[in-house]
Structures are given as structure tokens and as C-alpha cells.
Amino acid sequence: MADSTIIYTHTDEAPALATYSFLPVIEAYASTAGVAVESRDISLAGRIIAAFPEYLQQEQRIDDALAELGRLAGTPEANIIKLPNVSASIPQLKAAVAELQQQGYALPDYPDDPKTDQERDVRVRYDKIKGSAVNPVLREGNSDRRAPASVKNYAKAHPHRMGAWTPESKTNVATMGADDFATTEKSAVIAADGSLRIELTGDDGSTTVLRESVPVLAGEVVDASVMRVAALREFLTAQVARAKAEGVLFSVHLKATMMKVSDPIIFGHVVRAFFPETFAAYGAVLAAAGLTPNDGLGGILKGLESLPDGEAIKASFEAELAAGPELAMVDSDRGITNLHVPSDVIVDASMPAMIRTSGHMWGPDGQEADTLAVIPDSSYAGVYQVVIDDCRAHGAFDPATMGSVPNVGLMAQAAEEYGSHDKTFEIPVTGTVRVVDGTGRAVLEQVVSAGDVFRMCQTKDIPIRDWVKLAVTRARATGSPAVFWLDEARAHDANLIAKVTQYLPEHDTEGLQIEIMDPQSATAFSLERIRRGEDTVSVTGNVLRDYLTDLFPILELGTSAKMLSVVPLISGGGLFETGAGGSAPKHVQQLVKENYLRWDSLGEFFALAASFEHLAASTGNARAQILADTLDRATGTFLNEDRSPSRRLGGIDNRGSHFYLAMYWAQELAAQTADAALAAAFEGLAKTLTEQQDAIVTELIAVQGSPVDIGGYYQPDPAKAAAVMRPSATFNQAIASLA
Ligand SMILES: NC(=O)C1=CN([C@@H]2O[C@H](COP(=O)(O)OP(=O)(O)OC[C@H]3O[C@@H](n4cnc5c(N)ncnc54)[C@H](OP(=O)(O)O)[C@@H]3O)[C@@H](O)[C@H]2O)C=CC1
Ligand SMILES: O=C(O)CCC(=O)C(=O)O
Ligand SMILES: [Mg+2]
Questions:
Q1: Ligand 2 atom 10: residue of nearest CA
Q2: Is 0.95 topped by the overall pTM?
């Protein structure tokens, strides 16, 4: 890889489709500055293929691009544009494997219950691919996510639709508040480099080593907490009854993708709690058939078709569904409930979408209704309750006037809960878990019962120090108050508060307002300011980073797709994420059905400009800086002229939006005077795109309205997808002429 290289990631679903259209434009423009844009496949399908070379024919094999980029992220040369990717739930992983098998890849099936060494090996490889397996590898820096001024101003001038709130709303959050991760947490700061062992001593006298070695560094914060299953089940049963009694929808909000070990287990308990009689009667039959509630009701219902008792079990599910509270629906037309697939109800995106829609979700009748939003662990659930109470008291927020809450997130080196997968266990026997250091001393200890979920987290010192620095930098750059969302009553947060207090004096904070507040108080503080039109920087841990960078953008801008999302890598390199949202699976359905892609690439535009700017600064490439500056101006025009996908058939979609961006960018490049040769290089293209504007838009819109074949969902056929995503011959020729 040359010095002047930008890596553009090939991912999944809507952003991957958008890439077929936009990447050729980027490559052509970048080449004029001598910048190479290389693509790396980190899609779910690509990662599966890369993991099983010996099962595949030579020409089917591909390298492990994720591992390569993970190494790159640790070097100063890194300049990576990262699009959202699927963090696969088990049903998605199995679907992707099945699709690839159909395409001729002799991949092994996902072993639900591995028995042989070979099956265990296959399972380990698949488990590495499942869930959030990409972001933690690449995010070797902390997170800086904000709405660029141009986007915020656009949202104020063109406020999105916001559902009204009334004081009568019965929507609420239900959370445990005892015997959960938040309230059982213990935390310690490591004194010296070394390694820890996690072991379980059973009351039956057994000792099991859960993890032999967890390497730790001096100054690192380690935590251990437990979700107590007895209390969880009691809580869930009570919430099912509560939703029924209050006449509201029942919904659960978890992060079964990112918290890929703990949250599917918790999801499974929710499914059991909703269908207690069915699981009492048929739980053993379902388990024997490999049908686990952890993967959702959808998989179970499908699996019933081939069971001898299938009809009776189905009837039992239906009876309990009818007797219980109404379930919130993911897709009421297709009968997909909130309990069908764990990856369909991801807390970060689903809670703000509910708050934006008057506190409503959709019921089985397809109508909006008030909801009991169940978020079992109480670590961060209270944040949403404060927002809901605020809307009930003061009405919906007004996007035309509301302030902004950007985020500085502690994320580097798999910080906090998001790095806990390999240290999370469903406890097999009642006893005590000890986290023991090299001298045999128990650093952390938890009494556990069979079925409890034990979780250990790590947060390294260097990322914490970097995070404090980034917070001060953003506070200085914005002049806004910066609030550390830390709760001194939580063991982990108390240790972080000590470190924040230690590291803040390393910086010039003269004249800055820097506060430390527990998450609920921080929410109330920020909301009060928001309603006055004032901005407040949120400085948070990794989970709140995730939650808040969907919550506030979705309320302020209608979507988190339009965020600038930068990860200044600790190595000095740059990782540029494209927005804060995900891969928008619904958009793919629409493209296949009617050849319309409503994906908004604004996040890609911002990331690209930041990437060119970083490249210019790190390599001294003056033309890269011109590309950055002109792209920035072009994006401004793009916003002013309202060239995002129109969301209606017959208007421009993602492809049309790329055309306009390319046109405005070429015009800016042709008009700039800093580099006459570069201006000359773009003169012809700017003229062609401007003159051919109507013809190109007509060609792009003409294809809409009928189904298309892209040759695969997880791994589309590249030729078919490119043909679908580049339907304007005039535009394609114009771009090709630049090279
Ligand atoms: N950085 C990453 O890699 C991330 C990955 N994910 C992954 O993405 C997948 C989907 O997650 P989900 O929770 O559904 O969240 P998404 O953010 O993907 O989708 C929720 C909704 O947000 C809107 N949306 C998101 N991005 C855009 C965009 N660029 N343009 C237009 N609308 C957009 C769409 O709304 P509408 O229907 O109104 O158009 C969409 O239906 C999961 O596999 C998840 O793990 C999630 C977050 C971040
Ligand atoms: O990695 C993932 O699974 C999702 C990440 C995410 O939602 C975010 O960073 O906002
Ligand atoms: Mg998120």
C-alpha cells in the first residue's frame, strides 16, 4: 500500500449497494491527486469466505481483509473509510452461509451443538464472525461524532416530521435496578502489567477455568458484574403482566448484535417469559430440536414445521400470544414481532425511533400505540425514561430550534462492555467466580447461580487519557459545556471519575465548563439546554456513545446517517466512519422490489472529505487538500439544493444523489484557482455533467418501479449489482473520461 492510499471498505446491505455507484466517482476524482482508493471486503459474506479457505476451491478463497485492516489501524499510515456493516445475529449468519452454499461455496453448516473437534473448530470460527466483529477491530481510537454545522442548519431550516407527545402518553421504560449488571458491578484498577484468570468454583466442589489468561496493563480498569437470572425472569414476567394491565404494547430493546454473548441469552429469557406455558410444556422438545429462544421466535416457528408436535406447539404459541399484552411489531404486514429476530430490535436505533414517533411503536393491527419498552439492565435505561418524561411534560422536541448534543466516546481498544464477549459466560453451576491475578489474589469476585450471566470488562488507561484529551479539545473547539456522563454510585464509573480528575489538569481548561454528572442528570441537563437551542458535548463510555449517537441525531436530524463520525486513531492514523447508523436492511428490500434505493450517502461524503484532509495533512499532498475543500463546498450545495434521496419513487434516489454530488464537486474543482492544472482537468467533466444534467437524471429515474436482480443478498453478484447501481450510460461515460 502506497502512502497516498485511502482504503474504502466494502460492507453489506444498503451501504454496499451505494458503494457500487459512488466508489467509481471517488476513484476517478482521487486519481487526479495521485491518491489511490483501494477497496477491502469486510462484508459478512467476505468474512465467512475468508475464514474457511480449506473448504473452498482455490479461486474462491479470499484474504482476511479485516485482520489486515486491524493491523493497519495500529499504524500512522492508516486512512480508512468505514461504512456500516452487518453485525450478524445467528439467524443472519446462518442465512448468509446458506446463500453462499447456494452460490457454490462448500462451507460447513453452523454447528448449533458441536460434538466433534472439527465441529468445535468450525463453531469457534463462526462465533468470531458473528455479532459486532468488525468495529471493535478497527476502532483503535476514541470516537468523535457530531452533526456538521451545515447539516444542523439544514435540519433547522427543513425540520423533519416529529410525532406529537401528550401528557397522557402511557409509554415508559421498564428496567431492573437490582441484581443486574449495573447494580452488581465491582471494579478494580490494575497495579502492574500481568494477566488475570477467570475461574468458577462450584458449590459442588468443582473448579472450572472460564478463561485462562486475560492480559492486563498497569492502570487499566477491570470490572465484573452479573445479570442474575432468577431476578431477570421475575422482572420479565412482571413486565408482561404490567404491559397487559396498562393496555400498552410490550417491546424489548437489547443490543444482541454488539453484546453478542450476553444479550441473546437475555433475549431468550424474554421470549420464555412471554410464552411461559409453551416453554413449560415443550421447552425440552424445542431444545432437543435445536430451537433456541435466544435466536428469536421467528426461527422457532420456522423449525416447528418439521417437528411431529409442531402443530400443537404452534397452537400453544398462538394461544399465549393472544392472551398476553399486544406485542410491538417490526413489520405488522408480514407478522414479524419484536420477539422474532434479535437483530431486528437494536436498542440504539429502536428507542429513538419510538421517541420520534410520539412514544409509539406499531401494534399487530398496524396502528401506532403506547409501549412498555423493556430494557432489563439498568445501566443506561434511565436515560430513555428521562427523555420520555421530558416529552410527556413539554411535548415533542422541535427540530427547527433544538440544540445539539455531539459525543466524545471512550471506545479505543475494545473499551468497556463492548470488549467483554470473550469474558462473558452463562454460568453452568452455582458458586463463585473469581478473577485472579498472577499471585493468586482475587482482584474481583462474584457469587453466582446457575444460569446467571457473568461479565468482565476491561478499559485500558491510554484510551481513557486520550478520551479526556479529546473531550477538552471538543469543548475548546465548540465553546459548549462538556459533560462526562459518569455515575459515582457505579463501581466502574467511580474509577473513571478518579482518572478523569487526574487527567483533566494535564490540559488547559481555563474558561471551559466541564462537568461530571450521572447519566440521568446529564440527560436532564442536556435536554433543558436543547429546548433552549443550546449545545452540550456528551463525553461518555462506549455504550452511551452508541446510544446517544443515534438518540440525539434521530431527534435532531431525523436520522443518524448524516453524522460526521471520526475516529482519530491513537497511532496517528485516521478511521472515518460514514454516519452513526447501520446498514439499513429495509432499504435493500425496497431496491429489490422496485429498484429504488433510499440510502442517504451524506455520511460517506463527510467521511471522504475528512479522509482527504487527513491525507493532505499527513503526506503534504496539496491536491488532496483541494479535493477535501471542494468536496466540502459541494456537500454544502448538495444540502442547500436538497439532493438527498427524495424517499419517493419518481424522485432521485441514492444514485441520483451521487450524480449531483459529482456534478457540484466537479464544478468546484473546475472553479478553484489554487491549482490551475487541476481546474483544467475538471473543466470538461464539469461542463458535461452540467449540460447533461437532465439527460442523466432522466436515465437514472427511468429504471425505477420494477423488481431487480442483484444476484444475492449477503453476496450480490458484483456485475449485476454494478449494472443496477450504475444505470446512466451518460454519467458513466463522463466519469470514465476523467481517467
Ligand atoms: N457502524 C456500523 O457498522 C453499524 C452497524 N449496524 C448494523 O446495521 C444493521 C441494521 O441495524 P438497525 O438497528 O436496523 O439500524 P439502521 O441505522 O441500519 O436502520 C434503522 C433505520 O435508520 C434509517 N437509516 C439508517 N441509515 C440510513 C441512511 N444512510 N440513509 C437513510 N436512512 C438510513 C433507515 O430508516 P428509514 O427506514 O426511515 O429509511 C433505517 O431503516 C445491523 O446489522 C447492525 O448490527 C448498526 C449500527 C452501526
Ligand atoms: O458494531 C456494531 O454492531 C454497531 C455499532 C454501532 O451501532 C455504533 O457504533 O453506533
Ligand atoms: Mg449505534
A1: 546
A2: yes
580 lines ligand 2 (CB under 6 A): yes
Task: Tell me which residue of 298, 290, 223, 304 sits closest to 256, measured CA to CA.
Answer: 298
Does residue 739 surpass a pLDDT of 90? no
Are residue 214 and residue 241 in the same domain, yes or no? no
Residues 242 and 350 occupy one common structural domain? yes
ipTM: 0.98
Domain shared by 319 and 265, yes or no? yes
Three-class SS string for 244-269? HHHCCEEEECECCCCCCCHHHHHHHH
Q: 3-class DSSP state for residue 212? A: strand
Domain boundary among 408, 435, 456: 456
Which residue minimizes the CA distance to atom 6 of ligand 2?
546
380 and 336 in one domain?
yes
What pLDDT digit, counting tens, does each position of 161-194 carry? 999 999 999 999 999 999 999 999 999 999 999 9
Q: Which residues surround ligand 3, an ion (CB under 5 A)?
A: 348, 546
Q: Which residues make up each annotated binding site for Mg(2+)?
A: 348, 546, 550
Average pLDDT over residues 15-25: 98
Longest pairwise C-alpha distance within the chain: 81
The domain total for the chain is: 2
Q: Which domain holds residue 381?
A: 172-181+231-394
pLDDT of residue 1 exceeding 60, the answer is no
Ligand 2 atom showing the smallest separation from residue 132 Cα: 3
In sequence order, what are the residues at sequence separation of 6 or more whose Cβ sits closer than 8 angstroms to the Cβ of residue 497?
484, 486, 488, 516
- Where does the pLDDT of residue 273 fall: very low under 50, low under 70, confident under 90, or very high at 90 and above? very high
> Which residue's alpha carbon is at the smallest distance from atom 24 of ligand 1?
584
β-pair partners for 224: 186, 456
Percentage of residues of the chain with pLDDT beyond 90: 99
Write the CB contacts of 3 (distance below 8 Å, at least 6 apart in sequence).
77, 619
How far apart are the CA of 144 and the centre of ligand 1, in A? Answer: 19
Annotated binding site: 82-87, 132-139, 145, 348, 545-546, 550, 582-583, 587, 598-600, 647
Determine which residue's CA is closest to atom 35 belonging to ligand 1: 584
- What pLDDT sits at residue 302? 95
Atom of ligand 2 nearest to the CA of 349: 7
- What percentage of the chain carries pLDDT values higher than 70? 100
Residue nearest (by alpha carbon) to ligand 2 atom 7: 546
Q: What is the pLDDT of residue 445?
A: 98
Pair 338, 195 in one domain:
no
User: If you average pLDDT over every residue of the chain, what do you get?
Assistant: 97
Ligand nearest to the CA of residue 14, numbered in listed order: 1
> Which atom of ligand 1 lies nearest, measured to the CA of 599?
30
Residues in the chain: 739
Q: In this structure, are 266 and 292 located in the same domain? A: yes
